[in-house]
Amino acid sequence: MDTNKKTARIAGILYLLVGIFGGYSEGFVDPKMYVAGNMLATAGNVVSNSELVRLSVVAHLLDGTFFVFVAMLLYNLLQHVNKSVARAMLTLVALATGIICLNAVFQFEAMRVATDSSYASALGIAGSNAIVLLLLDIQHYGTLIAQIFFGSVSV
Question: Which of 153, 42, 58 lies closest to 108 in space, CA to CA?
Fold first, then answer.
């Protein structure tokens, strides 16, 4: 098989994995956890689905990892067409991946605050719930920002 064809197929498989892991975490888990403006419902969702949140964090990190590999393979395929555009793609993917991984940290920390009783003891239940909502608000808006960079690569 031609090297470029093989590279393109591997990139396609990795891009499919980006869609699967990103779709799971951003399309399935995040909407189940986050209720905008409702700290009680959000914290309750996180507590009752903490394993889902953990899986979502892993899915976000795998999504970012596969996204970087897709970009590197596409760069190898496309650099001879227009090197500066291929470099721009790598830059945008790096930005999106950094944001995706940082969002996973906010999501994980929201789960820790929601499930660790020491936060409720120190801050009170309302304070703990407010922090959970704040962390997931940050994660939610960070995802929207990452999708701006993701979309510029996908187009």
Answer: 58
Containing 71, the helix (H) or strand (E) segment is helix 50-78
Domains of the chain, residue spans: 3-154
Angle between helices 83-115 and 50-78 (to 10 degrees): 170
Retrieve residue 150's tokens: 């993701």
Q: If you ran DSSP here, which 8-state letter would residue 24 be given?
A: I
The secondary element (H helix, E strand) that includes residue 131 is helix 117-154
pLDDT tens string 51-71: 999 999 999 999 999 999 999
Cα-Cα-Cα-Cα dihedral sign, residues 30, 152, 19, 84: negative
**Whole-angstrom distance, CA of residue 109 vs CA of residue 51:** 13
Q: Which amino acid is at 69?
A: F
pTM of the model: 0.86
